[in-house]
Structures are given as C-alpha cells and as structure tokens.
Amino acid sequence: MTKAELLNRLADGKSVDSSFQKKFKVKRAGKDKDDIFWAFGKIHGLENIALVSREELEACKGDPVKIQRLVDAANDNEKPAAPKSYEELVD
What we know:
This protein has 91 residues and is mainly alpha-helical. It folds into 2 domains: 1-26, no CATH class; 34-77, no CATH class. Helices cover 47% and strands 0% of the residues. It contains 6 helices and no strands.
C-alpha cells in the first residue's frame, strides 16, 4: 500500500494494517505547534461545537479530526427552534 492509499483509507475510516500505519504520523509545524490552533484552528463550522455535549468533546482528547466529525454530525442534526421573542427566551 502506498502512502497516498494509506492516507485515503484513514480519511475514509477504513481499516489499515497497523504495522504499516505506525510508520506514518502527522507532524506539527508552524502555527500547528500551538495546541489551541491545532485543536480548533482548522475546523470548519466550529460555531456548531455548541451543539455537541461536553462528554463527547472531552472524549476527542483534542484530536482535530474527531472534533471535526462531531461538529459535522451536530450540523447535520435538527437544530432547536429559535425563540420568537426575548420574553420567551428569558422564561
């Protein structure tokens, strides 16, 4: 399996030979060395993280790929109805 095939299988969530997979790792350089940027800087639709439970978020342990999947799933779920007035929001 080539490196490109390995990365494609990993991106698709398919199984990969673990001995081959251990030869590759993501290297953090530049802005990625900052833990906050690494965990949140590249996540599309990050505002939808408010729709994710705290337990699910903590289970990701800062992995940006897992966080992106959670945000995507939250974005696909039905959103709560918006209040029609301020009074309805306060009550």
